[in-house]
From TrEMBL:
Residues 378-529 form the T20D4.11-like domain. Coiled coil: none annotated. The chain crosses the membrane at residues 38-55, 67-88, 123-141, 153-174, 226-247, 268-292, 312-334. Pfam families: 7TM_GPCR_Srw, DUF19. This is T20D4.11-like domain-containing protein. It comes from the Eukaryota. The lineage of its organism: Eukaryota, Metazoa, Ecdysozoa, Nematoda, Chromadorea. InterPro entries: 7TM_GPCR_serpentine_rcpt_Srw, T20D4.11-like_dom. PANTHER family: G-PROTEIN COUPLED RECEPTOR-RELATED, G-PROTEIN COUPLED RECEPTORS FAMILY 1 PROFILE DOMAIN-CONTAINING PROTEIN. Keywords: Membrane, Transmembrane, Transmembrane helix.
Amino acid sequence: MSNHTNLFPNFTDETSQLFLNFNDIVDNLFTKFPKAEFYVAGIGAITNILHLIVISQKAMMMSSTNVILIGIGIHDLMLMLSILSPFVNRPRIGGCDPPPSLIRVHLELLSYAISDSSRRTSSWLGVSLAFVRFAVLKNARKLRPTNLGKLRFGWIIVFIMSFISILFAAAYRFRFKLIQFETWHPPPSCEFSENFTRPEYGYLQRAIFYDYHELLLKLSFLIDGILAKFVPCFILILLGFLLVKELKHAQGSRKMMRSKKESASKNRTTKIVICMTVSYLVAEFPLGLIMILQFVLAETPGFLLVLSKMQLLFNLINTCNATIHCFICFSLSVHYRNTVKRMLYCYKKRVVVLVCSSFAASSDKDTDSKVARYLKSCGVITSLKTTKCVKKSDEVDKELKAFAKSKDKDLSKIKTSCKETVDCVKELKCKPLEEDHKETLDLCGRALFQDEFKECSKKLQALKKGGDKDAAKCLEDFKSETKKTTKDTCTFLKGSKDCIKAHIKKECGDDKLAGWEKFAQDSFKENECEKAIGTKWN
């Protein structure tokens, strides 16, 4: 009863208990997940570093919008680092670890000031981002020139917002003073020398903030809540509606003003800004409301206790918001995704060149020069695979030349070598490599088809032996026609009365028919058939 009265004067016990229960729920949440913000900040630090690497590329530096996004990314990263730094080598409370030194306490307090400053700057840069995008769209629609889209203007905005926020951070730091509140004595179980002690430091708000009925404390809550949270949120709501309106105008008039491709790019940029605006509203508005309530309820200790716990909860949400900005850009910006792809391409290409140079010792000069040419022409392909494929293709070339001079014309005998070559060339998808070995690939294709067609050939022979007169005549005609001149053969193969196609399709299916047609086309050479019958081969 007494505790309720002290914490919530002028409130009933039931109401006081309700607020205390809510405080316990939030407390339990952070007790079960004590390092929730630490893990989120760790992920956020990684994503923001990657985001800054991408967005600071020369290809991305196109307008003030991109510069403001860089500013947001920098302050988001500073926020993550300021959250992570107090966790580094933090002493365990109640254990044998000595309490933090005076310098460490100073640094922790500085990290809280940086965190406060970064959150504030990031939200105002979000407002600036929305405003600049709206102004650029509006001026473009009315065909009015503007300097707002220039890179220099973006840097000016980032500098001004950062400077103003630093002043607020300095005021935040001034609120607290460091004191030695106790002397630490290690537990007997710890291995310290006798009479070992360490001062324990902490910080509290300066007495001036409690004078005149906490006037300065209330004003600090009010000013910070209004300028850092409430005003940005209301401006963001207004700019959000205006951006949606301008987006509709842009979609309606894009045919008259610019190409669809350029318009789509502009619209995607606007959608990124709208999504960033919504994310800031979700993260910042509750914090602004909490700060205003802290001003209104400054004389009620219980409410300050509950609101401080709620502030921790919404700070976690704010940290999550600072983590997802790169995902918003990646999901909505084609230009952003293309920049990421180009960066990965360049990285892989550098790796490939290193692998290629290290592998060169085990390959001959002719192979090296070919591999280097294919790598240069085809970009990101694995050097080791390329070298092996070039060697294999050259070996099969020699094998096919020897095969051509022999009397044995059964291509299926070289199918194993051919299959390895065809598979590796297809996997690499390198056009110069395919062109250099076109004849080899054609012959190998026929060799592999001959082997695949054996079962189908048996089915056709079975038709002939089974008494199917039409099939027997068709096969005999085909056999005799292919022994005639090129012109007769080509005319027969191209003719609409080619009965063998119908039998292949019926007995073996469309795949084998398509393979047979290609085999016939390659075997009798398309250019010779065109010269012979005067029409293009289909």
